[in-house]
Design a protein that fits this description.
Oligomer: single chain
Shape: globular
Helix content: 25-40%
Number of helices: 11
Number of strands: 17
Largest sheet: 6 strands, mixed
Radius of gyration: 28 Å
Length: 490
């Protein structure tokens, strides 16, 4: 709902006591029976009528997606909305954008609103990209001469080439996102609403999007941003709303909101199959690189995990392939299958392949990429100096890696490859299998650990300091270990 009410001009967005309930019918027949019983009960009245109305309530359940949410956003502010899946984030954005009506409360927005919600929403799949650009720009309030002036910039930013004249139904999800983002941000909105729109797209386009969002903030635009990426919320937002099961869990600074959100996710991880020993969760990562390189895996645990994976491996093998992937699995140090780990944890990454012929010198390779596509780590058993045992035809051959996770909180993907026959430092006679995104996992922030930013933990330690007379002063170790100072004082 939009308003030009002068009483509300202090806020770009004002959400007051918003609730949203959905009626979930228990069956298709109940969807017909329930309203009939309710209407009949109203007409009949009396005790019999009340019983019919009561009987109609047994045909459905009410799901409370949002309950009494309040927030106020001033012009020029950037606000993040975070929470676990199902917490009500997208529902709240749709109410603010005017797509949904709340069951209770009000949501008011002042000025021109551009919203990137569901991928491709607002696009007609039968229209070409060009036609959708013209249509959406007009819907967003641009005059004909304004659309004409901005059209070249929209096409240039989307960078989808000749597909601009093809129907949108022929686009990939990444192309749809490119065009939608280019249109919505080119109309100079007063309020920009973004709901996980940057979850798709290659690294270079995502970087362009972040640059445009920064420029939007600099010119005084109001940004409402939903993301599971804590680092992106911290980078873009001043304040944040944390939702928990449709209710406000925290409303305040983005840093505090993210800290609470990350802590809750780690606590949820602790309560799952993995039982973290008391105190381990809050321990700082190793203070010396030597502690890392000397870390050793448990061979008996690896054998047990590989045996379990092989027993669960798919038996569907194509006749025309030399190797077929049987499994790619992630485990924590206790041998629990994981999709989420804590920053600074170690993990076992195991992969298996159905072999249709003998492999005399197999090598397993991996790449770990972040959500923007950047390769954060790449290695193979060959480049690590390991010689793996040969694989016999008709067997499931398996190997893996024992990895430390120094990465910043976020989502990551694993690419795996299998080659045979080494030729030189990083060359092979045969490349047998290579596939992106064979497994995804999430790294959560370790509560209580020192704060740092970037893509990985460099294990930095504070050194110094000395005054002009080279008198040593105490310097805390940033990793929480022994305090020490080193330098040229001696």
């Amino acid at each position: 709902m939009r308003t030009e009410d002068p009483i509300q001009t202090d806020y770009s967005i004002q959400v007051v006591g918003v609730s949203k309930a959905y009626r979930l019918w228990r069956s298709p027949a109940a969807r017909l029976k329930g309203p009939l019983l309710h209407r009949a009960g109203e007409l009949l009245g009396g005790v019999a009528g009340r019983r019919m109305i009561q009987a109609s309530s047994a045909c459905f359940d009410d799901f409370q997606a949002l309950e009494d949410v309040t927030m106020e956003v001033r012009p020029g502010e950037s606000v993040g909305i975070i929470g676990r899946n199902g917490s009500g984030k997208s529902t709240l954005l749709q109410i603010i954008a005017g797509i949904l009506q709340p069951s209770a409360g009000t949501a008011r927005v002042t000025g021109r609103v551009a919203a990137l919600l569901e991928l491709g929403s607002g696009f007609n799949p039968e229209f070409t990209g060009r036609e959708n650009v013209l249509l959406n720009a007009a819907i967003l309030g641009l005059e004909g001469h304004e659309i004409e002036a901005r059209y070249p910039d929209i096409v240039r930013f989307a960078d989808i080439g000749t597909f601009i004249d093809h129907p949108v139904k022929t686009y990939s999800s990444g192309m749809v996102m490119r065009l939608a983002f280019a249109v919505q941000t080119a109309v100079d909105p007063d309020v920009l609403i973004v709901d996980e729109a940057l979850a798709v797209g290659d690294i270079f386009f995502v970087q362009k999007c972040y640059e445009r969002l920064h420029r939007f903030r600099e010119r005084g635009g109001t940004l409402l941003f939903v993301s599971h990426d804590s680092s992106a919320v911290l980078e873009l937002c001043d304040r944040a709303l944390l939702l928990r099961q449709g209710r406000t869990a925290f409303w305040g600074s983005a840093r505090e909101a993210v800290d609470i959100y990350d802590y809750e996710r780690v606590q949820a991880l602790e309560q799952s199959a993995r039982q973290i020993p008391a105190g381990e969760l809050h321990a700082a990562p190793p203070g010396r690189y030597q502690d890392l390189v000397e870390r050793r895996f448990d061979p008996d645990l690896v054998k047990s995990l590989l045996s379990r994976c092989m027993s669960e491996a798919s038996r569907d093998v194509a006749d025309n392939d030399v190797v077929v992937p049987a499994f790619v699995r992630i485990f924590d140090e206790q041998g629990q299958a994981r999709s989420s780990l804590v920053n600074g944890d170690w993990m076992y990454l195991l992969a298996g392949f159905h072999c249709r012929r003998d492999l005399d010198d197999p090598a397993l390779g991996i790449k770990i990429r972040d959500r923007r596509g950047m390769v954060l780590y790449e290695a193979s058993s060959h480049t690590l100096g390991e010689v793996l045992p040969p694989a016999a035809s008709g067997t499931v051959w398996a190997a893996g890696f024992y990895l430390w996770l120094p990465f910043t909180p976020g989502e990551y993907s694993i690419t795996v490859g299998l080659a045979n026959g080494r030729r030189g430092e990083n060359a092979y006679a045969e490349h047998l299998f290579y596939a992106h995104d064979q497994r995804r996992f999430e790294v959560l922030r370790r509560p209580g650990a020192p704060l740092w930013a970037g893509v990985c933990n460099a294990l930095a330690q504070t050194v110094g300091g000395w005054d002009g007379g080279l008198h040593e002063s105490p310097a805390p170790n940033s990793l929480g270990g022994e305090k020490r100072a080193t330098g040229a004082a001696s």
